[in-house]
Design goal:
67 residues
């Protein structure tokens, strides 16, 4: 997913800002999502059920930082 919208200025009152220019013109944002779900179930006997599961959800923010 990417987001490249034009950034708004820090303030509309330009007299209070020491540096009026933004570091870049758009957000240049990118985020990567990963989801994994593993489920394993067995019935070794009539009265015994065994279930094992694992879940992973990852968010990686790949948006560059500007100073």
């Amino acid at each position: 997913m990417t987001q490249n919208e034009t950034l708004l200025p820090y303030s509309y009152n330009v007299n209070v800002l020491p540096d009026q220019a933004l570091p870049r013109g758009s957000a240049e944002a990118e985020i990567a999502t990963t989801q994994l779900l593993v489920d394993y179930a067995i019935n070794p006997s009539a009265r015994l059920n065994v279930r094992a599961w694992a879940r992973y959800f990852g968010l990686d923010n790949n948006t560059p930082a500007s100073n």
